[in-house]
Amino acid sequence: MDKTNSKNAGWRKEGFIGILTIENQPENYLVNPEFISITRLESFLSEDIRGLIIAGSGRHFSAGADLKNITTLAKNPEDLKIALTRGNQLLNFISQLEIPTLAAINGVCFGGGLEIALTCDIRFCTRRSLFAVPEINHNLIPGLAGLNRLQRICGQRNSMEILFSGDTINANKALELKIADRIIDEQNLIDYCRNYLTGLIKGRSPEVIRMLMRSFRNAEYLSADEAMKEDVEIFCHLAGKFSATNDSFGL
């Protein structure tokens, strides 16, 4: 196991699973929307990573943006725009990874922290987890595409209620709204998430994992016709490799 720090983030590899942590205890505020550079993350992911967990260090996932830093950046609108653009590019990069991604949500998951969690394919939390999009309480809106992702996950009416109220949501309500996919015992959250992802990818080649996840991404971002055409290409590519070493598919 190794661990490397980069900006607001830490990294370790356990088997084929990479664990990316938001690090700014105790609340893990985001000093910058781009809490890790894409280049640095790409370097970590090149270590034969087949599944990614994003978690907060310590007791919390992330309480979101550091408002003092946002206030400072806002004095120069161009600096703020650059910071938000880089943050969005990072989250888009994570959301399009061709490996399964899982957010392990401990404690608070607010604002920008929730926007990070929403980029993941799967979100597991604990009974004590709390969720909120409090930007409206500061006369702001989500700046990292949280509105778009939240609406896709829990629908327009529910997302409007969440965004306009700025209220805190507990784990049970998050599960009901599909913001969280499962509630896990707090002490075993990371172990559970690692074992869950390991079970998904166990015995699967890196290429098959990539191709399957590419198909999932296509289904989300392409039209139905385009996604179907891409699936045909992927199937034919994999079938060609399979037929080179097997006489029959045996499906």
Strand order in space, largest sheet: 1-2-3-4-5-7-10
Fraction of helical residues: 40-55%
The 3D shape can be described as globular
- Major beta sheet summary: 7 strands, mixed
Indicate the mean pLDDT. Answer: 93
Strand content: 15-25%
Briefly note the CATH topology name of the largest domain: 2-enoyl-CoA Hydratase, Chain A, domain 1
- For the record, give the distance between the C-alpha atoms at the N and C termini, rounded to a whole number: 38 Å
> What is the level-2 CATH architecture name of the largest domain?
Alpha-Beta Complex
Q: What's the CATH class label of the largest domain?
A: Alpha Beta
Number of strands: 10
* Number of helical elements: 10
Give an overview of the whole structure.
The chain is of the alpha/beta class. It folds into two domains: 193 residues, 2-enoyl-CoA Hydratase, Chain A, domain 1; 34 residues. It is built from ten helices and ten strands. The chain has a seven-stranded mixed beta sheet, sandwiched between helices. The radius of gyration is 19 Å and the shape is globular. The relative contact order is 0.12.
What layout of secondary structure does this protein have?
Elements: E1 3-6, E2 9-14, E3 17-22, H1 38-45, E4 51-56, H2 67-74, H3 77-95, E5 101-105, E6 108-110, H4 111-118, E7 122-126, E8 130-132, H5 146-154, H6 156-165, E9 169-170, H7 171-176, E10 182-184, H8 189-201, H9 206-221, H10 224-243
Parallel strand pairs: 3-4, 4-5, 5-7, 6-8, 7-10
Antiparallel strand pairs: 1-2, 2-3, 8-9
